[in-house]
Amino acid sequence: MTRVRTANTPNGRRLEVSTVVAVPAADAWDAIVDTTRWPEWSPIVLGVESTERRIRTGTTGRVRLPGVWVPFRIASCAERRWTWRVTGVPAAGHRVDDLRDERCRIAFELPPSQAGSAPISLRSLENLEALLEGDEATGRRETP
Q: Is residue 143, in this structure, part of any structural domain at all?
């Protein structure tokens, strides 16, 4: 179930785009903090160069978007929620909520100025769902 709504977040009111997937929260979290997997699920991230494979607060690098490389810095990464700045501007937050029965909710928190990115976030969530459920079916587990 995918939904779009306004929500109060630790960073203020945001447009929240989320979906529920049939995988454990730990597996979803691993996929969204692993920079090598970002191009697998984001329709606009074509490449990543990062100081660390798995992000944490302070990780820096750059992402290749169509036609351009842009710098990023992870502003916060804790309790299955991370935020970043892209070209120095606050960008979408990413969160994984643990649910019952080996399910979780993946949510992207869009700043008001980036509400136009909702279609990209929806596609990213569709891609994540297919990727994660495929990993679950094949037994793929990432190693740190």
A: no
The β-bridge relationship of strands 60-65 and 68-78 is antiparallel
Q: Residue 19: which domain range? A: 2-138
Domain with residue 71: its CATH number is 3.30.530.20
- Tell me whether residue 144 is in a domain: no
Q: Residue 104, SS3?
A: strand
If one counts the domains in the chain, the total is: 1
Model's pTM, two decimal places? 0.89
Q: Which residue has the tokens 């080996």?
A: 102
Contact 85, 91 (CB under 8 A): yes
CA distance 51 to 24: 27
In tens digits, what is the pLDDT along the chain, a chain of 144 residues?
679 888 888 888 899 999 999 999 999 999 999 999 999 999 999 999 999 999 999 999 999 999 999 999 999 999 999 999 999 999 999 999 999 989 999 999 999 889 899 999 999 999 999 999 886 656 655 544
The reply to whether 95 falls in a domain is yes
d(CA 45, CA 66): 8
